[in-house]
Amino acid sequence: MMRKLFKKPALLFMIVGITGFLLRVLFVADMEYKEDEEYNFAQTQLFGVTQPWPWHGMNSGVYLANPGMSIWVFAVLAKLFGIHHPTSLATAVQLVAWLGICLILPFAYRLIRDSSERLLWLWAYALAMVNPFLILYQRKLWPEPFLPLFVMATWAGWWMRSHFWGAFGWGLLGACLGQIHMSGFFLAFAVFLWTYIWQRESTHWRAWFLGSVLGALPLIPWALEALQTPIHESIRVGWSEMVQFKYWVFWFTNPTGLHLGNALGILRGPSHWDQLSDFIRYPWVGGYPTYINGLAHWIGAGSCVWIFARGLRSLKQRGSSWGEWMNGKSSPTLFLQNASLILCGILMTLTGVVIRRYYLCATFPFEFILMARMAQPKTRVGRNLLITLWIAQLVMAGTFVGYIHVNQGSITGDYGPSYQAQQKSLEDRSHVTH
User: Fold this and answer.
1) Vertex 67: Cα angle to 63 and 73 (nearest 5)
2) pTM of the complete model
3) Where are the domains positioned within the chain?
């Protein structure tokens, strides 16, 4: 049956897309709703009513206010669709995230000529649709769900950078990435620098500069305010952060899907194993745990170890020089992947800031492309490994959505009580007081 499906790619893409769609929009009232989410929704109801249009967002993880675009994306959605409820805004954000992943399909078929290279993007589309990490963060009222849409449009501009409008679009959108989430500044600068070093002659630089200047104009009020904030109060720098190499740890572990512990309680609660051990017992049938989710974790982990081993073996056997591999002339996909993996990682690490796992949402979809590349999907073994990993992550992601729904959130984890549970608690208190 699987072979028949692979002979009908349109049907396969539709099944994968619908699966990813449902994982994002089901049980929307179960969303996280803490300070960040409440702030982002509240601002959409205040702009243009009781407050002027903002030039900066809420404070970031490095205690520096985010640029205004980090909140504009929510405000535009709310104004465009007349949204006045948190769950409606969450659904709109989830749709934007899903559409961003879907952009991989026209990108792959319209811009990528090499079939082997296109296959990597198509597998990235499939893996991203069911990846538990993306499911967790794309169900939030955070700016990160907007990044896939913007980065895919940025890559399209970069791909056509020899033409005026392509380079202009790359510059314009690249300047916007960091304004949606500040991790985008590192990525945009890394891609610019990598391209300037290795493929300088390939770009219409005047158009790129014009687009970059235009895209950076909204940053001016934010930059003026940021300059008034003392550095020691806005950013934490430490050697300990640098030597942990978190950027690359997250890069290789995000696509595995084996990292819901913080949300579900492995770092909080009465014990390190408390709620995560409960999670792997799911789903329950007839009052008994099936441990299907635990089995999916083991199968997913085994598949990833095998894929990494194949990737290392392939790297060892690589015949081309490091220069050819780095400049990416043989593969634009490899070129962008290396800019994201190597230079963006170096730049972000050298700042010494605390790197969060979700910062790497800005590098979409290259974590998944690298996973597919290491698996070698043109081979039967590689394809079977990716299929196995996809199924394992589907089980994990589906169980996660179901677990949050059944338990109304995750009380001992970072997730906390769901929005629905919080509303019910408020209603109960209201009844008691009356």
Assistant:
1) 120
2) 0.92
3) 2-220+239-426
Q: Could you tell me which residues come within 8 angstroms of residue 91 by beta carbon, excluding any fewer than 6 positions away?
A: 25, 28
Cβ neighbours of 62 (radius 10 Å) = 15
- Find, among 344, 77, 15, the residue nearest to 187 by Cα: 344
Q: Hey, what are 24's tokens?
A: 């994002």
Q: Classify residue 164 as exposed, middle or buried by CB count within 10 Å of its CB (0-12, 13-18, 19+).
A: middle
3-state secondary structure 351-415: CCCCCCHHHHHHHCCHHHHHHHHHHCCCCHHHHHHHHHHHHHHHHHHHHHHHHHHHHCEECCCCC
How remote is the C-alpha of 59 from its chain's centroid? 20
Q: Which two tokens stand for residue 130?
A: 């069911």
Measure CA of the first residue to CA of the last residue in the chain; give whole Å. Answer: 60
pLDDT, one tens digit per residue, over 71-119 is 999 999 999 999 999 999 999 999 999 999 999 999 999 999 999 999 9
CA–CA distances in Å: residue 434 to residues 426, 428, 429, 431? 12, 10, 9, 5
